[in-house]
Amino acid sequence: MGNSLSQTPEPFLLFTGGFTQLRQADPFLSVGGIEHDTSKFGKGISIFGLTKEGAFVQKGAPVWAGENPSFLCLDPRGRFLYTTNETTEFEGKKDSGGVRSFRIQPSSSGEVALELLSAQPSLGSHPCMIATDKRGARLFVANYSGGSISLVPIKDDGRLAESRQLAQYQGASVDPARQLASHAHSVAFAPNDEAVFVCDLGTDKVMQYSYDTVTGTWTPNNMNYMPLQQGLGPRHLVFHPTLPFAYVVCELAAVICVYRYNSDTKCLVYHSSCEMLPSGWPSEGERSKVSAFNNGKWAADIVCAPSGRFLYATNRIHNSIAIFSIDPTDGRLFCLGHQPSGGITPRQFSLTPKGELMVVTNQHSHNMVSFHVDRATGILTPTGHQIEVPLISCVRIVNWKDLERSAQ
User: Fold this and answer.
1) N or C: which terminus of the chain has fewer CB atoms within 10 Å of its end residue's CB?
2) Which Gene Ontology molecular-function terms are recorded (predicted)?
């Protein structure tokens, strides 16, 4: 393709996923759920260009990817896109969702196509998160309602081989609405792929494993899991890009726990924690409005800036992005403030590779919003650009130039 792709007007490409079925991933349905326009629902994976100013340019119609392609994952080299199908039945197999792989096909005209390569069952209900190792050789799947982790080998051409279950978790914790059983919510790899960590929202544990990058096998560490304070609900975990620290966003308590990572034992050691919501919120006037919604505590995603200086996490109900600075000596967090997300239910978000722009998915207002990121202060400023994407739940960002290199 030569240098053709670098001539496209937008420097970034976005892939978005979401829910094709109504009233999904809403734990508050017993009290009516999050109010939103129920005439809109997702139609698959959408593709957009993103300009330096944060404007969105749609690239064709959505690509059908099965029911509820709610979470997306990019191949480390940008060749393939993987998605969950967050369901309880997949191609006739009950008690299982699914995963699919697509080849990314950019063209010199600036358009992008997705070619469906393969699909496999996730071997557990409601697969809510997927991640590849750094070699792009294996796809790990967290099955939320199934309380399990599955592994799907990835062939050289991006096709998925037969799934196998790695772990089935048991247990519960103290929240009678959300913690009656195990709910595996995410998988995260240590910086050199030497260890794997699983956040189990239902049991208040972070499972810890050693990982063999050659064989793909994992074994429990000497300390099989890191217990959290009961009722926190660990959801997602990210590592600092250069320091030996990991950060866990806890959905039920709207708290971020900080851990020191020991690369010798491949275990996490608790360090500190930081509240995600503003002090004094909800106010007396707001308290009655959010009391049925876990008192306004419904944390979602977490991302560390490429510089390692700042950390961001989303608050649903409060509909904000919490902004933190990171102490370079001990990894401790300090809250700098909160930026309104520009919509309702900011479920997931991504930064551009160098961290100059942030894109946030607001599930229940059906919109995607961009922000300028001040890389010196960490502060976010709305670009003024947004676009409608019904029941959006995930966005992934890649450089056009990276696509060009992967296509050669």
Assistant:
1) C
2) 6-phosphogluconolactonase activity
What is the average pLDDT value for the chain, to the nearest integer?
95
pTM comes to 0.96
Q: Mean pLDDT check: name the lowest of 210-224, 266-280, 332-346.
A: 210-224
The two tokens of residue 281 are 């919120």
**One CATH from 3.90.850.10, 3.30.450.20, 2.130.10.10, 3.60.110.10 for 4-369+381-407:** 2.130.10.10
Q: What is the pLDDT of residue 3?
A: 41
pLDDT category of residue 1 using cuts at 50, 70 and 90: very low
Other Cβ atoms closer than 10 A to 224 = 12
Token code pair at residue 362: 């607001």
